[in-house]
Structure formats: structure tokens, C-alpha cells
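Quick check before the chapter quiz. The format below is the same one you will see on the exam, so make sure you can read both the input and the output lines.
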Amino acid sequence: MGASMDRGAPRHLYRFGEFTLSPARRSLRRGDREVPLIPRYLDLLLLLVERRAQALRRQEIFDRVWSDVVVSDGALTQAVRTLRRALGEDGGGGLFIRTVSRHGYQFVCPVVEEDDAGELPVARRAHGGPLPPVPDGAARGAATGPGENPFALPLARLVAEDGPEDEHRESAEVLHRLGTAEALRRLPRGPGRARAWALLRDSRWDVAGAGDVPLFGEAAGPAAWLSLAGLRFRRARRLVGARWASASAGGALAGALAGLLGGLLMTQLEGRGWPPFSLLLGLGLVAAAVAGLGAAGVGSGLAAAEALVRSWRTPALVLLGAAGGAVVGAIARRAADALVESLFAVPTLGLAGGVEGLVVGAAAGLGFGLSTRGFAGGMASPRGSTRVRTCLVTGAACALAAGALGAGGFRLGAASLRSVVAGFPKTQVRLEAFAPLVGETVFGPRTRAALGAAEGLLFGAGLAAGLTRRPRRRDDAPS
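Here is the expected output.
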């Protein structure tokens, strides 16, 4: 995680107020009682304390703490709110964490650094006596119900009709830490029950050790499922737009590269030397348009799957990737057929369409899902070598699918282009030049398979590269 310390650096622990924060032990303690925090929230607190000399921009926090996933701006607001309550700042902050308007956050409480070795020191009162054991801030506030029932207050907050959604989610996370099964058993009937179940089911992924929230349990039902769908659609609306646009751009760039490389190789194989600029430009633009449109369909399906489905992530990526590819493929085929026929009086050509889009979209979803397993809390956004691996695995899956389609006689980009230019004898596009490379003398199944695999590899890799691109955020987002 972004807030972890360098391996070679001396280990410190931090004391502030009544708290002791140990990076080596990954723990926050108040007195001799540990304050439970989910891993990302502990990472955020570590980052704020370690960099307390400056106000951190929201973008930097996202890049460090949520470096492997893309989440909504509300995730940071919710995390800071939870930290403030854990530190006893129920009034909105300022003692420990300061909100810097239109910028980010800064840790402002005085901190004493000590060597992190041996037993953790016990925080003491000003007069020297040890502090009594107390629960964390959220659970401390919860222990105000009848008979000091720790479930009472978070349950009341969870089912309340008013209040912001991040407060409701925080209450759900507190209940998971107290015990998921018991929270479900105590969930009151009446207004707010359906939304409460939806929040408990959705937030269980963000709390280490949270129990299961059965899809067909006693608290579930049509109203609860609708509430869960609405919750995830709202998150999807915030996240999918930029994700889809990046995937489309990645596919278009990959298509342009395929067109340029194909044109260069084709003319070299025929001994025609350097191809004319007009040929390269035309091939690049056509390939970019086709691949970009395909990536728009598949990418929208994959982005929606990531935002909407968390229990069966890889199957959802396969299904929605296939659906997006099929819909866009079918629409593109009809549009391309109509355009070519109206402009050049060439009859319907049987271009790549819904079947091809479905198969390649499913392959992209499978490759992307398998290569990004283990990314939780948002949309997968790997970096460095992990991102390269994701692009290669997704590209390989698309290459296998596209190669099989080509061998089976289905038309992908290159084969569709060959069908279009077949009616123009003077064209310089002669894909038969690739046939000798695979031991054929004509544009046969092996040539179609090889070209399809090459297209699929570039398409899948470009799609994954765009899909995993981290969007830049506005620093003046609401705090």
C-alpha cells in the first residue's frame, strides 16, 4: 500500500494525543486497547501522519492509498470521516485531521516519534496514570444503547431515513466489525431495512473479517435487491464514464498501430518499398475507427461489470463484455454495410458484426478478470509490471478468440477490409501478401487466423491499457 514505509528505513512509531500508531505492527492503539481500522483506512492515517508537515492533495492521496483501484471521490470523504470518529472527533474534525478547502487534508495534531522496537508503550494521562481501555471511536459511540448494547447506535444510524450515504455506510462497516451475523439478526423490520441490508452486503468487501450477507437470507428480498441495485448503479454512474472513454481510446490507438504496422509489412512483403503516406493514413484511420468502436462496446461492458458486480466478478466481466461487444458489433455492421453500399454501390459485404464482438468481448472479460483477481474496494487499476501483465493476459485471451474466429471463417478487421477493397481492382491493399508467412498461397484459414490473432492481441492489450488508466481528479472536489 502507498503509506507503507521503506524496507530499509528506521522503524518509528508515532504518539499523538492518547494514541499510538505503529507502522511496523500496522496498528492504532488508544491506551492499551487497539482501535480496529480496515487496511486502507490505516494506510490513509499512516500517510497523513508521516507527511504531516504538508497538506496532501486529494489526487496524491488517491494515488498512494488507492493505488491499485479506482474509487469515487466519496471514498476518501468516508475514510476521513471514519478516521475522525475513530480518533474521537465526532464534531467534524480539526483536532487531528484538518480539511484544506479545495485541496485535501493535513494531520495537525502534535506527534512524537519513537523507535518502534520492543513492547508498545502505554499512553498515559497528563498526571501520569494509565488510560483506561476503551473501544474505537465508532464502537465507543455505539455503546450507548440499552444495557450498553454496542449494536444499538450503528443500527439506528443504518436504518435512519435522513443523513448522507457515507454515514450509513460507515455504520454498516462498524456493524461488520462487531459481528455480521448478529447485526443481520438484530436488523429491525420496517422502513430502512431494505437499504440497510443492501449497505451491509455491499460494504462487506471493505471490512477485513466481515461475514457473509446472504443474497437469499431472511433480510433479503425484492425491495432489498432493488436497493442494492440502486446503490451500485449510483456508484457505476460516477465511475464508468471515464473508464469507458479510456478503454475506447486505448482500443483506437491499438487499432491505429495495427493498421500502420500492417501497411508497412504488407508493402515490404510485396517488394514495393516504402508505402505511400495516403495508404498508411487510410489504414490507420480505418483500423482506429473499427477498434475504437469495438473497445467502446466491450469497455463499457467491462466497466459496468466492475462497478455493479462484486460477488462473481470474472463471470460478470465475461457476460457484460460479451454483451457490449455483441451490441456494438451488430450496430457497427449494419452502419458499415449501409455506408459502403451507399457510397460505392457495393452490395452487403458480411463485415464483422455481433458474433465476432460477442466472442472477443467475452475473451477480453475473461483475460481481464483472471489477471486482476484480488483487487478489492474499487475498479482494478494495477501499476507497473502488474499492469503490463494485465495487458498481456487480456491481449492473449483476445488473440486466441480472434484467431479461432478467423480460422472458422468469421471476418474480423483485416478480413472485413479485404472484403471491402475486393471491389476496387486498383487498390494497394493486398492482404494476400501475408499468406506465405503461414505457408499458404492464397488468403486462406491460416492467414485469417494469424491476422485475427495479431489484431486480437493488439486490441486486447490496448483495451486493458485504457481500462486500467487512472483518471485525474479535480482537487477542489467536495471534502
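If your answer matched, good. The radius of gyration is 28 Å.
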